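Write out the 3D structure for:
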Amino acid sequence: MSDQPSVPDQPSVLFVCVHNAGRSQMAAAFLGHLAGGRVEVRSAGSAPAATVNPAVVEAMAEAGIDISAESPKILTTEAVRASDVVITMGCGDACPVFPGKRYLDWKLDDPAGQGVAAVRPIRDEIRRRVQGLIGELLDDHG
């Protein structure tokens, strides 16, 4: 998401959900936007959808973030290996686990099949969690 080159001590985060069409897309967009390039951001899905959920795109646009050009990506072992923190959002046992990584599981409602009104509270909860995560990551990395 960032055009900036990776900085060696820059923390990196991978957000994972099943379809990479909703929760993980919102979380990655918020982290990229709110951290201002100070965190390397990835998102992926264990069974990616064809497109990002249109209600999610609309809800993020309301928050001032355009994710209309994003597309769901397949979860790879390399993406996990390259990340310091892996945050899962309902991907179950599909997420590979590597020693030395920090794993968090965010229990969030799935926006799949929901309208924008149902997506807004999920979006707002993700923003709140991402803001807390940024504080932790940047405290840890100076």
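The chain has one domain: 12-134.
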